[in-house]
């Protein structure tokens, strides 16, 4: 009993562990729990700690005791909780933290941690014009389902745009999706099953991990350098763990802003060929580039590289539309999956996007945006430097600065402090599978235009 | 060798069986195939048939022979193909047949087999007006992400509409999704895992099965009667197979057009309580009802009934937006799933839908639609009767007539014949897990307005 009295948290830990196993459905309703003795051995606690934990779980109805037989999980099986499938992280460094804080932010909050541009940087005049044009479109555009592949003129335009990056795809090899995220989600359903190993960069876009957790993939990572993944580690990890899939950004890597070098691209493709690794190249920031990075889909062709993108970052997050460019045989099977899981798409967002993209003003909008981002990058870097915050990588202008905080400052704690003062930050560990970015932080330079941000940041970093 | 010469199809069968096991990923790249002898024994064919099949699979690169060691699956692991996960059905009665034929149909094709209204039955004037209004909306509506729950005024309006059906939900218990199908898809991800058993009606909406196959659920079914599932069979099947989930339509059941009786609803809920069964009530046809059926979510509350819907059928298939009404604790976890798998939604379609729904003309549109459907139902039934085709169930006017073809006429063959003449039909077995509806067919009365349909149908039924 002394152990319990001394440390009630041991009992809580045992309870949490059982609850997690029920949430993750490793234990189902009616399943027998391990015996007191074996649970104690497994968790390295005393029998009496387990007795107390089981008693409390009986009291709250989670488990039931059957006399002479043992303990069993109670009737209601909890639904699958993706928050519980992976390791239970502190909410401040949970991959959902930034998404949900950014998406749920009150209008008066400042969001240097979010991944998109401020509303007034977007081509709203063109979108308004497109909406008025659409109000005069034919009936079927307004009320009918789109075809499963999606609006043909937009796919033709995408095919030409991809050709500009050296990526050769027929319009029929392009499948429109609801968003870039949904494109990756659909591909994960198509390519992996629970327990399959998937490789990501460390750091990488936090939602890759949230998404892969929802697929119950085994996530492994390789350190990311200013020219792409550390290629020797990449080779070793691929050879050792035989991942099925590698997800990455070639141009404007999220969160580092780095670009893949041609040499690294070439080596990635050779390693992938050797080990039958499929690559998803997520290119949603393509239009922000000033000097285009090489694309894996251009170098390696579509045999094992799948290229995806969307318009959320450059045009409008409200016009939900992404795309998958891939091999014809895979596209045909992906159509079945699209119909099964979302029926068909709509032509509405694709029509609006097509109207805006073919509008001559879009190119001018993007030129202006790149100039504006380049200034914002310089200005933000200077402001951050004055607080002792320095970029780890000096990117080709894009939207992200991946920075080290002054020594000893914890990014997660800083983010929590800043949130209390109306500023949403993106602490490094939400991007890091290895949790090795506790001192780092991603800044979206377009969202760093308000002086209040740097005042709050300074205060938030104080011990 | 005589066996091969006599019946080359045996070799093809062995080849197809190996290919299916690779597609379904029961055999992975590098896995060893069963020995010639053991494969022959398993499939009940001669050794020489297997030798020939393996030789041909080596020739086309599917497998490799390693001298002295045996046969191995070649390098590229095929992606998961949902078409192959379930039983390989004849394409004419594959659940995707109707979807893909309807969605890909050329404009001149007639589609009595599809599940939605013709474009000119939809409230296009209201939609055009809404688009013009939206062209004047504030920036953030046009270019920003929506909140994860989705547009608040639409959720408030939905909450009031649901209250009209006796379903009590707070607006914060309603999560907007990309579509009704996506709502069910998200719930399946949340509630089931591969191998879990899910119960559906027989017949049921074909896409339930396509969707459940994509989740690799074990699908079981209960015969559907004019008042709901056959309740004694339902009780027995639930008790024997302990399904985790039951998916159904309470009002205007697809494909039968039937409505749940209050007594059956009550018994379903009691059985569900007894066996911890969760129910998804898909209510997308709600607004077509003339006499509302009881709703399981109204009778049983939200504890184990999840209510979903969309606007694709009554307003516009192009305004992609569905919703999930459920328990608060589940909604909160579903938000994480929505963010992980699709990031956030857009406000665009929800804003348009909200504008149309709150427009006074929507109610008038729906009143007109119900009258028009009621006339179409009478007219179609008469036309079908003249061909010897009779409804199995006489529905409260809705959009579907579930009919028996004359004795001895095969619906799948009839559908194939009609397709060759530009008419997409919906043969019974695409709706039937037990494949017991070979003589039945679903007609969408709103899509049966062209006389050509009945001429083609008559010819297509000729032996």
Automatic annotation (TrEMBL), chains A, B:
Keywords: DNA-binding, Pyridoxal phosphate, Transcription, Transcription regulation. SUPFAM superfamilies: PLP-dependent transferases (SSF53383), Winged helix' DNA-binding domain (SSF46785). The keyword Transcription regulation applies. InterPro entries: Aminotransferase_I/II_large, HTH_trans_reg/aminotransferase, PyrdxlP-dep_Trfase, PyrdxlP-dep_Trfase_major, PyrdxlP-dep_Trfase_small, Tscrpt_reg_HTH_GntR, WH-like_DNA-bd_sf, WH_DNA-bd_sf. Pfam families: Aminotran_1_2 (PF00155), GntR (PF00392). Residues 8-76 form the HTH gntR-type domain. It comes from the Bacteria. SMART domains: HTH_GNTR (SM00345). PROSITE patterns: HTH_GNTR. In the C-terminal section; belongs to the class-I pyridoxal-phosphate-dependent aminotransferase family. This is GntR family transcriptional regulator.
